């Protein structure tokens, strides 16, 4: 469960997590938390409480013996004992009172989740810029590099996100993938993308299309039989570009999960996914001006391309 936390401030750039307490007969809130999160020991919860890192929605500290009461929210800080360092740095391309635009490197998640808290673009930017309320307007895959936009003021976030929902944002990507002479470009791929197996993979399925991508060929490398492609997604389904390219028989170079590989290989920092969020443009809902941003990053396989 997620929601605005008024009881605890951000800590080292990480906002507290939230869990709702349902109706139930647990003796204490601690008992509920231990059952709700089996991967977190009772000792860890007791230490967090001793450090004043668990509180209810009214700002009152949760103590080890506090009786359970349902229909309330509890806020707490997540912690990772051994978070891996992502050895790549982001750069800020633009900052004003409304927006922060950053170039995200490959392998760095946008927001905290799973095994990543401090090693995320959002937390790094919060800490480096001193903007506690910074919040992403959209996201790109951890494996993808390129542009990510953030709202400086939380009250403005929805207006920016509405542009994405109404498909009023032009998004341009670039990818390196195999070249096939039997595919004629430009083309448009429309399909229905649904959650696959395991849960983190997506796949195409029968039914009404819910995704659309325009794809064009930019240049080819006869020596390697690879090509550089321009991709423009109309919709924003999870892993859409990767799924569409794989479905065409031209999976993006260094993609670890499309096509499926079992088990999924670990990260190899020497082989980043050759997918780049290259440009984004839109009419700003607050200033009325046309905003256009371009990445300073590039795909660097060192290939010999010809038009």
Written account of the structure:
This protein is α+β, with helices and mostly antiparallel strands and 307 residues long. Helix content is 14%, strand content 29%. The strands form two sheets. Strands 4, 5, 6, 7, 8, 9, 10, 11, 12, 13 and 14 form an eleven-stranded mixed sheet that branches. The protein has a three-stranded antiparallel sheet with strand order 1-3-2. A hairpin with an 8-residue loop joins strand 6 and strand 7.
Q: Indicate the mean pLDDT.
A: 92
Number of strands: 14
What is the molecular shape? Answer: globular
| Helix run count | 5
End-to-end Cα distance: 50 Å
In short:
The protein contains five helices and 14 strands. It is an alpha+beta fold and 307 residues long.
SSE layout:
Layout: E1 17-21, H1 29-36, H2 42-50, E2 54-56, E3 72-76, E4 91-95, E5 99-104, H3 121-129, E6 135-136, E7 145-151, H4 157-165, E8 170-178, E9 187-195, E10 202-205, E11 211-221, E12 226-233, H5 240-247, E13 275-283, E14 290-294
Parallel strand pairs: 7-13
Antiparallel strand pairs: 1-3, 2-3, 4-5, 5-7, 6-7, 8-12, 8-13, 9-10, 9-11, 11-12, 13-14
């Amino acid at each position: 469960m997620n929601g605005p936390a008024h009881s605890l401030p951000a800590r080292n750039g990480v906002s507290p997590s939230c869990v709702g307490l349902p109706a139930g007969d647990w003796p204490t809130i601690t008992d509920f938390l231990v059952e709700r999160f089996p991967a977190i020991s009772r000792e860890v919860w007791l230490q967090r409480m001793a450090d004043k890192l668990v509180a209810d929605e009214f700002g009152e500290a949760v103590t080890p013996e506090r009786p359970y009461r349902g229909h309330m929210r509890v806020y707490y800080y997540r912690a990772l004992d051994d978070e891996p360092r992502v050895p790549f740095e982001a750069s800020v391309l633009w900052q004003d009172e409304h927006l922060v635009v950053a170039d995200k490197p490959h392998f760095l998640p946008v927001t905290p989740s799973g095994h990543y808290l401090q090693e995320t673009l959002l937390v790094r930017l919060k800490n480096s810029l001193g903007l506690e309320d910074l919040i992403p307007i959209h996201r790109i895959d951890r494996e993808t590099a390129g542009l990510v936009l953030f709202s400086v003021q939380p009250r403005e976030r929805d207006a920016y996100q509405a542009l994405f929902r109404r498909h009023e944002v032009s998004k341009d990507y670039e990818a390196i993938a195999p070249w096939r002479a039997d595919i004629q470009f430009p083309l448009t791929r429309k399909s229905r993308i649904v959650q696959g197996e395991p849960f983190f993979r997506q796949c195409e399925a029968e039914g009404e299309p819910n995704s659309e991508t325009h794809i064009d060929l930019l240049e080819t490398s006869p020596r390697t039989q690879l090509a550089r492609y321009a991709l423009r997604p109309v919709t924003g389904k999870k892993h859409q570009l990767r799924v569409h390219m794989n479905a065409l028989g031209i999976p993006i170079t260094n993609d670890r999960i499309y096509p499926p590989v079992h088990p999924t290989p670990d990260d190899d920092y020497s082989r980043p996914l050759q997918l780049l969020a290259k440009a984004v443009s839109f009419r700003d809902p607050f200033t009325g001006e046309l905003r256009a941003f371009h990445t300073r990053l590039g795909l660097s396989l060192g290939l010999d391309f010809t038009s």
